[in-house]
Design a protein that fits this description.
Number of domains: 2
Number of helices: 5
Strand content: under 5%
Helix content: over 70%
Number of strands: 0
Distance between the termini: 49 Å
Radius of gyration: 25 Å
Oligomer: single chain
């Protein structure tokens, strides 16, 4: 009886070592992947910053503005939109390597797609648009 228990203990220890050996590299890979997403996450954060700044600039001013002020604001808005667009283009080329990266991209889709749909004069009721928005919400919720 003790030989059977000893054999089972040895097998369990061996399996434990194998499983630990398999999990350790994957845990290390997951940690490395997450750190690989730091550039992606920083770019996503910058897009959100641009959007916040655009909302502030688009808000109605408390007082009437002079023509020069309006031109300056329009110049700032144009620069922010161009920066945001260029940043989104860069993000589209970077694969997400973690749930955080996927969630960050999903949040951008949820934020930017309705704006693009409005700019293109189409509706959010399009089946394909609804599918993409649903996917973005699902990805963000899972992450």
């Amino acid at each position: 009886m003790s030989k059977i228990i000893a054999r089972r203990s040895a097998l369990a220890a061996g399996y434990g070592a194998v499983v630990t050996g398999l999990l350790m590299p994957s845990t290390a890979k997951a940690a490395a992947r997450q750190s690989d997403d730091s550039a992606l996450l920083a770019l996503c954060h910058r897009v959100h910053d641009c959007e916040r700044q655009l909302k502030v600039l688009n808000a109605d001013p408390a007082r009437p503005l002079k023509r020069e002020d309006l031109r300056a604001i329009e110049g700032q808005k144009t620069a922010l939109v161009l920066e945001q667009y260029a940043t989104v283009e860069r993000i589209a080329e970077i694969p997400a390597n973690s749930f955080h990266g996927v969630a960050a991209k999903a949040a951008l889709v949820s934020m930017l797609l309705p704006i693009a749909v409005e700019d293109l004069d189409i509706t959010m009721d399009l089946t394909e648009i609804r599918l993409v928005m649903s996917l973005a919400k699902d990805a963000a919720a899972l992450c």
